[in-house]
Amino acid sequence: MARMQCNFICYFWRSGNMICKMVPWCLYNITFACSILISWRPTYRSSKFRNVYGKAGNREQCFDGIPITRNVHDNHFCAVNAKFLAIVTETAGGGSFLVIPVNKAGRIDPHQPKVCGHQGGVLDIKWNPFIDNIIASCSEDCSVRIWEIPEGGLRRNMSEAVLELYGHSRRVGLIEWHPTCSGILFSAGYDFKILIWNLEVGGPVKMIDCHSDVVLCMSFNTDGSLLATSCKDKHLRVIEPRSGKVLQEADCKSHRVNRVVFLGNMKRLVTTGVSRWNTRQVALWDQEDLSMPIIEEEIDGLSGLLFPFYDSDTHMLYLAGKGDGNIRYYEVGTEKPYLQYLMEFRSPAPQKGLGVMPKHGLDVAACEVFRFYKLVTLRGLIEPISMIVPRRSETYQEDIYPMTAGTEPALTADEWLSGMDREPVLMSLKAGYKRPCQKAFKAPVRERKTMVMNGLLESIPPKTENELMRTFFRQQDELKRLREELVQKDVRLQQLELELNNLRNNSNKL
């Protein structure tokens, strides 16, 4: 029996295609080659988000003519919700930010009213996740302030805050609202401390003092029971915020962490940073074991900071570089490969920061699953970028819009401080969303509006000339306010003395 010969070599492409070429093989090797062919699988996973694409807004949908701040602090300088868009602006002396109704795009009036109460540059702004009209800001003047924006936007410059919170000895660089609790705000300053503020009483309730350098980023897990921080001391920490106890800590020498974000309820963390070869990296960690990352993936050799954004509903991770025009996006899984690259949105205009629209503000009819607001400093432009799942059906796409975190707080500040944890109150985006009547934000009833922390933070003397000047001006304002209160009380005292004399005279006549 003649021996049969066959040529059989398979070249596999990453896209899943295959080319076969015939080379001399013996007959008994054909079975082995066929088994290889049968066991072969494509390198990509089936996913409904494989073809998600980014769509930049047209000129009519952009916000033009905005003097975006030129501060080099590594923040987004932008915050957005379903009602308003807030942008930190360039200003001479003090600090200010614009608040524009999100449905009033176009050319912005140069004399648009601003929020301008800070005495130093504004470094971070965040909208309250449960009350659309409340925004918090922090500044180089060492203060955190809470503002209440009127319905329809500002009609005149706003300089009076609902609350002024002083407690940090140096400038405040980061603020974060608690994800499930109303009235709890976190602030991180250049004094290496994180303060927890209870806005229902107008004062601080806890100081977290476990960092040896400046805190770069803060992120909460879904129910707010854990806080992850990245620090300039090259350490990644997972903290129990109520007690301030460090549960896990990683010394990231080979992967210098800049930004960190919790991956919902997956018990994983994603960090972005720089490798020892100065290339940008993304790393995946187990929140219960930070001894070493699960995976590390090189992104590119650029120098801009990588901002991570995670969507827990679609399990998609977006990476946007500061100074880049590109946004990469991945699908996160629990099995290898943990980060599945999907696609990249490209733009020639570099971005200074990005604001993210909450889920209840998205266009469900257009299958929009994420929306950025991109700050283009060189053109004074805010450009919306929509991430869209291409679907032909005009019905509600329930598989890409599961129940999502809504705008109802799950618990009060006192409940959270007492040790309670609850998952977010979920809502559906089907057939639109009718919001219940929101409770108005009420500042605590105090004679003084300025809340200064006592007892939690020792009195630290200013270390630089700028800090000394800020302390001096703050004390001057305090003295001015006290003098005004003293004058008012003197006038009131004189009025009461006159009334008392009149009563005595009337009683004598009787």
How does this model look, in words?
The protein is mainly beta. It contains three helices and 37 strands. The N and C termini lie far apart (143 Å). The relative contact order is 0.12.
Describe the structure in brief.
The chain has about 500 residues and is mainly beta. It has helices at about 30-40, 415, 465-510, and strands spanning about 5, 10, 20, 25, 55, 65, 80, 85-90, 95-100, 105, 115-120, 120-125, 135-140, 145-150, 165, 170-175, 185-190, 195-200, 205-210, 215-220, 225-230, 235-240, 245-250, 255-260, 270-275, 280-285, 295-300, 305-310, 315-320, 325-330, 340-345, 355, 370-375, 380-390, 405, 425, 450.
Which helices and strands occur, and which strands form pairs?
Layout: E1 5-6, E2 9-12, E3 18-21, E4 25-26, H1 30-39, E5 53-56, E6 63-64, E7 78-80, E8 84-88, E9 95-101, E10 106-107, E11 114-118, E12 122-127, E13 134-139, E14 143-148, E15 163-166, E16 172-177, E17 184-189, E18 194-198, E19 203-208, E20 215-220, E21 227-231, E22 235-240, E23 245-251, E24 255-262, E25 268-275, E26 280-286, E27 295-300, E28 306-311, E29 316-321, E30 327-332, E31 339-345, E32 354-356, E33 368-376, E34 381-388, E35 404-405, H2 413-417, E36 426-427, E37 450-452, H3 465-509
What keywords describe this structure?
disordered N terminus; five-stranded mixed beta sheet; 37 strands; six-stranded mixed beta sheet; 510 residues; mainly beta; globular; 3 helices
